[in-house]
């Protein structure tokens, strides 16, 4: 007797299997002939582990237009607008916006998020708010918090002090932004300092690193060295890395092996990187995405991040990680079938590894969290960005949606149409 069985679904590797769930764990995967309290019929549908977002800014989410719209569309104007907003936003406002976004996330099968929390202001209301959200959503969504000195660890007079205060309050990941310090030297010094903090406290380290079009912004080189020095390995992630888009190939031929040697991971954010970068170019216009394929070829774990939804930096967004992967595969030109399937793994398995999620996956003993999608394969899911027919979190059904085929009124044609395609039908 199972509490829940997901029947007849197609797993990402193409296997057709039932998934039996007891409590909050997957108990069996295969052909299951048993009763269950609840059965989800997933015949012909893709059953995936939940989507994971390793890079987000939840303290600013759903604040688009406050205090006004980012007229230039640049990263720096967005930071300036956020500086105004964080000075006036209350804890209750940030909590309400974040919880609403978490509702969106659950509906899209996004059940794990790492969010950077601005630790610049001395009041630390954002930290207080996100810790409250973390506790509220814990039964159904894993939320990691990063202590993020948005205005710089050293550039802000109390930047370092406030980052340490946030960690003492319970924030579990060390952040950083070296390219926003006053000088390249101070940026490098901040990385050495932050690496020591992460190592001494036994925490993960996730740095906004080289989010610029300047090819001389090479802080990731220092970061990789510090990751190796302190043995942080996959506990460390370099987010954005957009300057690598503009670096010369000879230097990158040295840099990528250093990154791979360190064991650190990388998190490009395609929707935001290609929107914010290249704003000072005429033509040719740079798109600002880091060298995804080259990093992966060197053995670096790379995952796609969402970064922003309806905030001072980005005017769109739906909490759909398939939108992120869809944009990423286009900009990175990852269009071979194997590369497209890899893009799906980047918003599931690879992102789970970056966040250090335990018991993730569709194996017996894993946490019983999964998504049933109206698609047959991972590549088809990327093409369609389909409805999530069911979302299960820790053994509980937390979202469901009816299949929504379109009805046609065309002479001699079928009465309804679906955009799914297995390659065998005309």
Structural overview:
The structure is a single chain. The chain is of the alpha/beta class. The protein has 13 helices and 17 strands. It has helices at 75-88, 91-107, 125-137, 159-169, 184-201, 219-230, 249-262, 270-276, 292-297, 321-331, 337-346, 349-355, 378-384; strands at 2-10, 16-22, 25-30, 36-41, 46-48, 51-56, 110-118, 142-148, 173-174, 204-209, 236-240, 265-267, 370-373, 388-393, 396-400, 406-407, 416-417. The strands form 4 sheets. The chain has a 7-stranded parallel sheet with strand order 6-7-8-9-10-11-12, with helices on both faces. The protein has a 4-stranded mixed sheet with strand order 3-2-1-4, with no helix packed on it. Helix 2 (91-107) packs parallel to helix 3, helix 10 crosses helix 11 (337-346) and helix 11 (337-346) crosses helix 13. The longest helix has 18 residues, at 184-201. It is globular, with a radius of gyration of 22 Å. The mean pLDDT is 97.
Write the layout of secondary structure elements.
Layout: E1 2-10, E2 16-22, E3 25-30, E4 36-41, E5 46-48, E6 51-56, H1 75-88, H2 91-107, E7 110-118, H3 125-137, E8 142-148, H4 159-169, E9 173-174, H5 184-201, E10 204-209, H6 219-230, E11 236-240, H7 249-262, E12 265-267, H8 270-276, H9 292-297, H10 321-331, H11 337-346, H12 349-355, E13 370-373, H13 378-384, E14 388-393, E15 396-400, E16 406-407, E17 416-417
Parallel strand pairs: 1-4, 6-7, 7-8, 8-9, 9-10, 10-11, 11-12
Antiparallel strand pairs: 1-2, 2-3, 5-13, 13-14, 14-15, 16-17
Helix pairs in contact: 2-3, 5-6, 6-7, 10-11, 11-13
């Amino acid at each position: 007797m199972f509490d829940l069985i997901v029947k007849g679904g197609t797993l990402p590797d193409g296997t057709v299997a039932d998934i039996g769930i007891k409590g909050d764990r997957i108990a069996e995967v295969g052909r299951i002939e048993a009763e269950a309290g609840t059965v989800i019929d997933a015949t012909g549908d893709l059953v995936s582990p939940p989507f994971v977002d390793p890079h987000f800014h939840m303290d600013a989410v759903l604040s688009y237009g406050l205090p006004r719209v980012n007229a230039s569309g640049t990263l720096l104007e967005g930071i300036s607008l956020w500086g105004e907003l964080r000075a006036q936003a209350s804890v209750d406002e940030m909590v309400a916006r974040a919880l609403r976004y978490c509702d969106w996330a659950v509906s899209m099968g996004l059940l794990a998020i790492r969010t950077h929390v601005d630790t610049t202001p001395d009041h630390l209301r954002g930290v207080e708010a996100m810790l409250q959200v973390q506790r509220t959503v814990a039964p159904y969504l894993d939320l990691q918090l990063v202590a993020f000195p948005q205005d710089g660890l050293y550039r802000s007079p109390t930047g370092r002090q406030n980052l340490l205060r946030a960690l003492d309050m319970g924030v579990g990941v060390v952040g950083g932004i070296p390219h926003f310090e006053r000088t390249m030297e101070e940026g490098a010094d901040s990385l050495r300092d932050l690496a020591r903090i992460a190592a001494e406290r036994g925490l993960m380290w996730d740095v906004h690193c080289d989010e610029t079009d300047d090819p001389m912004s090479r802080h990731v080189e220092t970061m990789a060295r510090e990751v190796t020095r302190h043995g942080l390995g996959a506990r460390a992630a370099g987010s954005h890395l957009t300057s690598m888009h503009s670096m010369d190939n000879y230097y990158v031929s040295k840099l990528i092996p250093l990154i791979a040697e360190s064991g650190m991971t990388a998190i490009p954010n395609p929707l935001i990187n290609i929107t914010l970068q290249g704003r000072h170019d005429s033509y040719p216009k740079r798109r600002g995405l880091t060298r995804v394929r080259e990093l992966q070829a060197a053995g670096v774990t790379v995952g796609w991040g969402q970064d922003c939804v309806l905030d001072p930096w980005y005017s769109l967004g739906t909490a759909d990680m398939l939108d992120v992967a869809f944009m990423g595969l286009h900009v990175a030109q990852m269009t071979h079938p194997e590369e497209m399937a890899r893009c799906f793994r980047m918003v599931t398995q690879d992102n789970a590894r970056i966040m250090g999620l335990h018991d993730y996956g569709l194996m017996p003993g894993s946490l019983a969290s999964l998504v049933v999608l109206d698609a047959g394969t991972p590549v088809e899911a990327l093409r369609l960005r389909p409805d999530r027919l069911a979302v299960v979190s820790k053994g509980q059904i937390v979202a469901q949606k009816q299949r929504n085929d379109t009805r046609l009124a065309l002479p001699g044609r079928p009465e309804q149409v679906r955009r799914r395609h297995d390659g065998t039908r005309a």
